[in-house]
TrEMBL record:
Free-text remark on how the cofactor is bound: Binds 2 Zn(2+) ions per subunit.
Gene Ontology terms, MF aspect: aminoacylase activity; metal ion binding
Major localization class: cytoplasm
Protein name: N-acyl-aliphatic-L-amino acid amidohydrolase
EC top class named in words: hydrolase
UniProt xrefs under PANTHER family: AMINOACYLASE-1 (PTHR45892)
Residues reported to bind Zn(2+) 1: 110, 144, 206
UniProt-listed InterPro entries: Aminoacylase-1_M20A, ArgE/DapE_CS, N-acyl_aa_amidohydrolase, Peptidase_M20
Keyword Cytoplasm found: yes
Pfam families: Peptidase_M20
Species name: Abeliophyllum distichum
Compartment list: Cytoplasm
EC number: 3.5.1.14
Amino acid sequence: MNGSSAAHHHRRLQLPYLSVILAVAVLVATVNGGEFTDSSAIISRFQQYLRINTAHPEPNYYKAADFIVSVANSLSLESQILEFVKGKPLVLLKWPGRDSSLPSILLNSHTDVVPAEHEKWAHAPFDAHLDTSSGHIYARGSQDMKCVGLQYLEAIRKLQNSGFRPLRTVYLSFVPDEEIGGFDGAKKFADSEVFKKMNVGVVLDEGLASPTENYRLFYAERCPWWLVIKATGAPGHGAKLYDNTAMENLLKSIESVRRFRAAQFDLVKAGLKAEGEVISVNMVFLKAGTPSPSGFVMNLQPSEAQAGFDIRVPPTMDAVSLERRIAEEWAPASRNMTFELGQFKHKVSVFDKFGKPILTSADSSNPWWALLEEAIRNANGKLGKPEIFPASTDARYFRELGLPAIGFSPMSNTPILLHDHNEFLNKDEYLKGIDIYESIIKGYASYVEHLKDEASRDEL
Ligand SMILES: *[C@@H]1O[C@H](CO)[C@@H](O)[C@H](O)[C@H]1NC(C)=O
Ligand SMILES: [Zn+2]
């Protein structure tokens, strides 16, 4: 809504009155339609958010929270700051729906970013420099994921200006600590009483940039299993050939892991599977040898050797057979191999709390999926095929509760630069993403379930 139509109705009033009305009209237009919604104001708000240094290990969370709350106030959203852990504020915003009994929509984003090696950037990572010739905005967090957090809010501004009122309540959460595991952020939030009361029906969270024109949607993510195996064997002279040394025992495991890794990677190289659809295994450390002042003792075969692996398991995979493979081939007791630190140093279950694979249905059986695809297409967005996120995001904490959670960051024709030097997002891509969210939020917040069962019962 803006003031120009109001001025028309008063055309017959005398000039002094008219100018007062016009002045009011201009003021209303400036607040509702003008200054806040022209694209330079939108971009400058994005830059403001990007300039707040929320990089680990000392993220300025309070400054980010103040900024989010100030934007929320300009939209008259209800806001509260939750501090599950002191010093780690989580901003929760609410746009109340007309029917508070319906499950709500949660739009999640994290406020923290990974550190940047300043000297390796062409533009300082917290300057949010806008390159006027390319339109690229350079900043840590421009892709991961301050863009998304603010796009949600800009989309709400547009919907409000168009007069839209949500049927379902829309919540926005701005969470800390995603980049360090989310334990003090999204996890505590998902497990909280506050969250339970929100009656969330669907969650949107982050995805990845797409170098093609197709946006990417993520319905699951691979679960990290961090495995440390240890081999033991009789020590001996470095010149002696004998069986069952610790090194030999470990090397057999490493060979077995290597064969498995190559077979998985071949599927990706051949284009038969996407990165998120295979099990990745990467050796991340090797620890063995007998230290000496100048390095290692060279004529002694050690009695112990260890190796660590980062394994990522898609929830669509048979986790039981992988565990069997680990126990029988990678760390068999028969070869004097043991697991360090229990079986795994860290292991995320491939099942949710109901024992179902931890994934969101990516087909028409899930109305939220269908609605999302439709909303994106309605806003002229193109889509690739549903994907499994190769690494971890906060979405898993919501999926663990059995909730549908979809990973999406509207960035097409954009190189994947999260956690990289010179991370950027083009301003037009950012603006387009706002239109996409406008369509999604409108679709989600208006969604009325067709009560198929009741309807068919009535017919009978
Ligand atoms: C395992 O350790 C035992 C006891 O040290 C040894 O007798 C046996 O040969 C070892 N087996 C292998 C396969 O290393
Ligand atoms: Zn992220």
